[in-house]
Amino acid sequence: MREYLFVVMVAAIITYAATPLMRSLAIRLKAFTPVRDRDVHRVPIPRLGGVAMFLGFGSAVLVAHQLPFLRQVFGTGEVWGVLAGAALVCLVGAIDDVRELGALTKLAGQLIAAGVMAFEGVQLFSLPLGETTVLPAPILVALTVAAVAFSTNALNSVDGLDGLAAGVVGISAISFFVYSYLVGQNYNPANVFTTAAFISAAILGCCLGFLPHNFHPARIFMGDSGALLLGLLLAAAMISVTGSVYGADLSTSPVAATVLPLLVPIAIFLLPVADLLLAVVRRTRAGRRPWQPDAQHLHHRMLQLGHGHRRAVLLLWSWAAVAALGSVSFVFLRPSVAVALTGGGVVVVGLLTALLPRIGVAGHRPHNIG
Q: How crowded is residue 353: how many other Cβ atoms within 10 Å of its Cβ?
C-alpha cells in the first residue's frame, strides 16, 4: 500500500506543479475555452490542463518502474501501452485545445490510441459472465476500442462545471483502486500489485493535483487534452480489472457471480454514463442528432434547481460516490449491509439535493482570469 500512496503523491505533486506552467502556456497560445450559450462560465478560461495531468501520470509510471513491488506490473507491455495511448490522445486533445479539430479527427485519435493499448495487451480477453465467456479476438478488440470511446465521451458530458469532471474521475479512481486491490487479495496466490490498481492510483494523484487549480472559480480547464486523457485511463483501468476478474472471485451466489463483474465497473462510472445516455435519448426524441450539444445535462439541471456552482459540484460528487462506492460494497460486504449503506447514501444525498435550494445561498460565477 505504501508504494501506491507514493505513486499518488508523485502524480499529485507533478500535476500540481505543472498546471500553472500549462496555464501560462495556454494564455500565450490563446488556448481558451470560448463562452457558449450552454456554458456556465462567463469569461474565457485557459485550458491545456490535461497536459499537466499527463506529466503527472508519466512521472508516476517512471517512478513505479523503479519500485520493488510495483515493478512487477511492468512484466508485460500493458502499462507502456497505456502510457503510449495516453500520450497520443493527450496530444490530439492539446492540439484541439489550441486549434479546434473536427469530431472525426478526435475520434480517430481515440481509436488509434485504443488500438495501441489493445496491441500491448490492454483488452478484454474474455467476458466474466458467470463462467468466463471467450469471444473471437476481433470482437474483443472492438469492445475494447468501444469502451475507450464511450468512456471519453461520457466524461466530456459531465465536464461542465469547475472541478466536476476531475472530482468524478477521482472518485471513480478511488473506487476502481479499492475494487481491484481487494479482488487481488482473493487471487491464488494473492497479488495486490496489478495494472488496474496502479493506473487507478495514478489517476487519483493526477486529479488531486489538478483540482486546487480547477475548483470554482477555476483558473484553468482540463480541456480536451484532459478529457481524452482521463477517459482513456479510466477505460484502461476498467478493461484491465474486468478482464482479470472471475465471478467466483466476487461471490458464491450464481446470480451475483454473473452480474457483479460487469455491473460494478459500469456503476463506478455511473454518473457520466447516465448523463451521456440521457443526453442521447433526450436529443433523439427531440429529433436532433445525439452528439448535438444542449444545456440539459445533469449539472445544468442542478443549477436550475437553485444550487450554486460549488454546491452543485459537491452534490454531484456525492451522487458519484454513492453509486461508485455503493456498487463496490456489494462485492465485499454482506448484501444487507451494502443495501443499507447504499440506500442510506441515496436518501441523504437526495434530501440534500431537494432541500438545500430552499435554505442555501447560491454560488458565484467564475472570476475573470486576469
A: 18
Q: Which residues of the chain have pLDDT under 50?
A: 252, 254-255, 257, 362-370
Specify whether the CB–CB gap between 203 and 162 falls below 8 A.
Answer: no
At residue 345, the pLDDT reads 93
Q: Can you give the pLDDT at residue 40?
A: 67
Instruction: Assess contact for 204 and 174: CB atoms under 8 A.
Output: yes
Which pLDDT value is given to residue 90? 94
Cα–Cα distance for residue pair 313/210, rounded to 1 Å? 15
- Evaluated on CA atoms 338, 344, 346, 349, the torsion sign reads negative
8 A C-beta contact, residue 246 and residue 132:
yes
Q: Model pTM?
A: 0.86
Q: Which amino acid appears at position 191 of this protein?
A: N
The sign of the CA dihedral 10, 167, 108, 196 is positive
Rounded CA-CA distance 321/303 in Å is 20
Residue 128 phi, psi (nearest 5): -80, 70
Q: In three state form, how does the secondary structure of 230-259 look?
A: HHHHHHHHHHHHHCCCCHHHHCCCHHHHHH
pLDDT of residue 188: 64
pLDDT of residue 366: 40
Residue 100: predicted pLDDT: 84
Sign of CA dihedral 174, 177, 180, 181: negative
Q: What is the residue type of 25? A: L
CB atoms closer than 10 angstroms to residue 260: 22
DSSP 180: H
Torsion sign (Cα): 234, 312, 323, 132: negative
Report d(CA 302, CA 284) in Å as an integer: 22
Cell of 199: 493506473
Residue 139's contacts (CB-CB under 8 Å, 6 or more residues apart) are none
| 13-41 burial: b if 16+ Cβ within 10 Å, else e | ebbbebbeebbebbeeeebbbeeeeebbb
**The one-letter amino acid at 197:** A
